[in-house]
From TrEMBL, chains A, B:
It holds the Pfam family SMC_ScpB. The gene is scpB. It comes from Rhizobium oryzicola. The keyword Secreted does not apply. Gene3D superfamilies: Winged helix-like DNA-binding domain superfamily/Winged helix DNA-binding domain. Keywords: Cell cycle, Cell division, Chromosome partition, Cytoplasm. The keyword Transcription regulation does not apply. This is SMC-Scp complex subunit ScpB.
Automatic annotation (TrEMBL), chain C:
This is Segregation and condensation protein A.
Amino acid sequence: MTSIDDQDLFSEVDEAPSASELEAERIAEALLFASAEPLSIAYLMERLPRGVDIARIMKRLIIQYAGRGVNLIRIEDRFAFRTAADLSFVIRRDEGEAKKLSRAALEVLAIIAYHQPVTRAEIEEIRGVQTSRGTLDVLMEAGWVRFRGRRRTPGRPVTLGTTPSFLDHFGLEEIRDLPGVEELRAAGLLSGRIPPDFRVPMPGLAGDELTEEEDPITQLDIEELGLLAPGGAGEE
Amino acid sequence: MTSIDDQDLFSEVDEAPSASELEAERIAEALLFASAEPLSIAYLMERLPRGVDIARIMKRLIIQYAGRGVNLIRIEDRFAFRTAADLSFVIRRDEGEAKKLSRAALEVLAIIAYHQPVTRAEIEEIRGVQTSRGTLDVLMEAGWVRFRGRRRTPGRPVTLGTTPSFLDHFGLEEIRDLPGVEELRAAGLLSGRIPPDFRVPMPGLAGDELTEEEDPITQLDIEELGLLAPGGAGEE
Amino acid sequence: MATDTIQSTAIPMDRLWQDADQRGVTEPALVIDVGGFEGPLDLLLHLARTQKVDLARISVLSLAEQYLLFIESARRVRIELAADYLVMAAWLAYLKSKLLIPQQVRGDDGPTGEEMAATLAFRLKRLEAMREAATRLINRNRLGRDVFARGAPEHIAERHGANFDASLYDLLSAYANLRQRQAVTQVTIERRKVWSLVEARQMLTDMLGDIGDWTALQHYLLQYMPPAERVTATASAFAASLELVREGKLEMRQEGAFEPLYMRRPVASPAAEPKE
């Protein structure tokens, strides 16, 4: 501790605080941290030990946090922690709040997971409604769904499947780890009233391999599907 | 250098950090402060300046915040700021407390936590009773329990385990920190097999006699067991 | 066998009157609240607690007797007991007989009474340990009650590229709901009081896991069945036992027509435990 080295950010203000002041400081810190809104002096006073000098405690805290990544700031007669203004570039980098997947997207994703390789028509058959274009786009954008190949049937429909990052996100080692009817039922996800012939497919796919009924997708297919907008024109 | 005064809470770890380390520290602080969820090392590394020693920075931060009202805690490979546990009495909020778990759900949660990865059949073996629907899904909805994978045994039963937010919720760094887990393991109580030294002494009884350590079951016991004699219902 | 939903059956008042008349009014009427217990093991644990000794030192014999007494009382007032209470009663009656019979030379035909008793004591101890663990767990400082996260988070983190959030639970419940919705059928079958093959099989495997030598299980079992369930229990247990024989998990023997059916686990069974 030769020189007051620069990491000594939380160092001294004026004179040493008493033990009860330190405790009050800790309480104020915790309250300010946990609160959704700036806290008034009155509010803090109510909760800090009696007889401590609130102004002094707040002043000490402000100084202690001044150089750090988080600052204690004063807004009129209220106090709040805020990330340091000069670091806003780090914080705001991924501005977009995580969006909840829509119910439709969840359903489509689940169908793709369980029934893969599955075509769009099959998804619609299972859901009983048309799937809007945006739904699949969302799942693709999330990186959870991919085109697998083309089914060797008339019309050569494109087959869909999940990606490794799907497994990663949902904490599955392999697609076969998805729970079956019995487990869904035991977990309370399926109610007791299901027809006796109710089945949940057990996807037996290993990774990227195509099944015998699938052909690989070619560059041509991709353009044809409107996935690559040729010449930068937007899709649809 | 002589006395480290007591308010010097945020003082040194081992050697003086470089300026770039200090900056990285500030950024880490800001990111962690801003987030309600624990942040993974991978996430932090993506955002901190290249080449800094993350482990060292996190260690410094943990030490610096150790005595304060807000602590930096580790949950597996994630970090989060949380209010200090010893301040619970000041900021404890009873409203909004997480849904009260039923006794069965709590028991199932404990079994999953201590025995994971565990199959449903094993849970039922331990409890001696089928798990009713709604028990598991309450735990899954709370985000504490998840499907982990499948056991490599015939039938490939799905296994259950806890989530990182289970650890976060109960203030555990990792599963090894579960209260009493080592003692339970040592006593063989976390296995499906009866430990070899577990023997019940058999009184060589020829009939219904009770040993000295036993009392006969009485009418009172029966009442206590929930065999309630409704006062005077018979006489009415 | 949804034990968690056992209700104590209300006894009609006039029945109580009749009973009281028959028994003499001195004997108090009992209302048994089995619903307070999480199954037979829970009840046994509760009974064992009354012995006030280490679970490794309990008298399994007297425990078995207490349990059987409990079941007796319940049946006397015609409480409908879930099947697993009765299965446990049958098993304990069997255990009791094994404990009381003088020790035989130990063949290789399954566990001795002592071993069965030790297993039971172990299971009780393990269940109790889990109960204690649960209590300790729930009394820890908990996030959102004792310990708090940042009250005003500024961004949501931990998104690698994709800014979408969904848990496996969301995914599975969406799928289950959808499939169920699509599978709406008008099949609403009135539940008959029938032992399904699955239930009977489960019951048999549970019991046989601990029984080695020839045993007329049905007899033990039926004794504890309400008359109305005896036929279905017998039929299902028989069918299930045939299935188990076919799979090599069970051996059966019968002296002649209408003689008791004896069952046992195959002697040289590959150590395939039914469940573990």
